Amino acid sequence: MTGRHAIVLAGGAGRRFGGGKLSADWRGEPLILASVRTALTATVETVTVVTGADAGVVGALAAVTDPRLRRITAADWAEGLAASLRAGIASLPPSARAVAIFLGDMPRIPASLADALLDAVVDGAPAAVVRSPDGPAHPVAFGAAVFADLLRLSGDRGARSVLDALGDEVVSIDCDDPGVVFDIDHRADLQSNAGISVLNRPLSPGRR
C-alpha cells in the first residue's frame, strides 16, 4: 500500500441542508463517519479529513481510533470545494503515488471501490473514475502526475476540468451500485431509502 492515500472532503457549509450537515445524524452516528469508515477500508497509508465550516465534524472524528486518520482544516473553505481539495492534496507526503477522493456527504459508497480505483492509478493511469448508469459518481482517484493540476483549481467546483483535460487517459470502472451517486443535500435525504446497495461490487475497468 506504499504511496496510496485517501482524502475525505468535509469543509463545506452545507447551505442547502441548512448547516451542520456532516455532523447530522445518519443511522445513529454523525454523517461524516460513514464516508470516513469507508475510506478506512481501503488499502491506504492515511485517510485525511479536510474540515472547515462544520465544527461538529471535529468532535465526530474523535470516535475513530484508526491511527491512519488525519485531520486538517482548509482555512479558505468558504471559497468552495476546490479549497478543500487543494488543502488535502497539499497535505500529502512527497512519497504519495495515488489518492482516492471521497465526499463527506456520500454515505453509501461501496467499500471495495476505492481499492479498484487506486490499483488503476498505481498501474499507470493518471486518474480513475467510477462510471455509473445513473450519472456522475464517486469516489475518484488521481496519480501524483496530476497533483499540481489539482492544486491550481479554484472556486466551488471539483476536479472535472482536470479529468476532461486527461481525456482517454482516464480509466473508468463500471459500477451499478446506486450508492456511488447517492448524496445528502437536504435534511429529507437523511430518511431516504434511495441508493441502498444491491450489488455492492465494482465491475470491470476500462477506458472512458
| Cα radius of gyration in angstroms | 16 Å
CATH H-level superfamily: Spore Coat Polysaccharide Biosynthesis Protein SpsA, Chain A
Tell me the CATH architecture.
Alpha-Beta Complex
Would you tell me which CATH topology applies? Spore Coat Polysaccharide Biosynthesis Protein SpsA, Chain A
Largest sheet: 9 strands, mixed
Tally the helices.
6
The share of residues in extended strands comes to 15-25%
Record field, number of beta strands: 11
Cα(first) to Cα(last) distance is 26 Å
- Spell the H/E element sequence: EEEHEHEHEHEEEHHEE
CATH class, please? Alpha Beta
**Average pLDDT over all residues:** 89
Shape summary: globular
Helix content: 10-25%
Which structural class do the helices and strands define?
Answer: alpha/beta
Determine the oligomeric state from the structure: single chain
Description:
There is one protein chain. The chain is an alpha/beta fold and 208 residues long. It has a single domain (4-207), classed as Spore Coat Polysaccharide Biosynthesis Protein SpsA, Chain A (Alpha-Beta Complex), CATH 3.90.550.10. 22% of the residues lie in helices and 23% in strands. It has helices at 32-40, 56-60, 81-90, 113-122, 147-151, 160-166; strands spanning 4-10, 25-26, 29-30, 46-51, 69-73, 98-103, 127-132, 135-136, 140-143, 171-174, 205-207. β2 (25-26) and β3 form a beta hairpin. The radius of gyration is 16 Å and the shape is globular.
